[in-house]
Design goal:
This protein is mainly alpha-helical and about 325 residues long. The protein folds into two domains: about 200 residues, no CATH class; about 80 residues, no CATH class. The protein is built from ten helices and no strands. The longest helix is centred in the last third of the chain and has 40 residues.
Length: about 325
Amino acid sequence: MYIILSGLAAIIPMSFYLYLIWRMDKYDREPIKLVLANYLWGALGAVILAIIGSIILSSFLQVFIQDEFGVDVLSAVIIAPFVEEITKGLFLLITISSRKFDNLTDGIVYGGAIGLGFGMTENFLYFISNTENFADWISIVIVRTLFSAVMHLVATATLGAFLGLSKFMSKPIRVIFGFLGLSIAMLIHSLWNLFVSFESTWFLGFIFMIISVLIFISVFQLSLRNERKIIFNELYEESLTGIIPRFHLELLSSAARDKSGWIDEKIRIPYIKYATALAFRKRQMRQSKGSARNYYQAEIEHYKNRIAFLLSQVNFI
């Protein structure tokens, strides 16, 4: 019975969080298959590698430290953040090569997906290991769902944000940003584990995580605001050439685009999709070289043609 309850308690909240951050990416939403691939890496691949790495490093630590409590604390504060943030972040190095991964918002979504997958599996393992008392089990479910798993989301999303921010920068800068993002992710993880390792400081851990989540949401919102500016600025040229009507610029770069009535409802959704993709492809093309630049140029022409075809089907007043 507890196995079923633990599975539901682990899967349902993390799946809801995943859907929430995916939906929060309003303007250039990531392919759900790629988001799920990152989520599953966190839930399976990262967990397996983290367990192996933690066992190896903890065994090495026990050679020098005989105190069991000391080993447990050091494992939680140093080894776990080091090993887990690396194993979670490995898949981001694959995802970042995708042409769909191009900015800070994308990094937050993909990194957050990995963190949530990891948190889901870790939660399940904790839940089934604490089934002696139902009240204690409920307490663990609440704390880990609202805080521990969210910590994994925030930590790995931080690494993803730094990778997304630096994707089109020079290689040395990308490496620096990667290490900086990884270091901050490890620090977030380490501080949370440190605070909750002692009864006298656990409340500081909750305060720390609440502040971290507020910062996470603020950065996400700032990134979305920047995406709105990208859409407006990149489509401005298209409004001058007549590909996109001038009065659509404000609508396409705001939440008002999701409301009906400003264009024929039959084409509204694909029109928004193509116009948004056009804006981001233009930005990506300017930042790219070689074959990537040629790819984005072809995409730009494709979306221009699709937009022209859609708008030719409707009349404007």
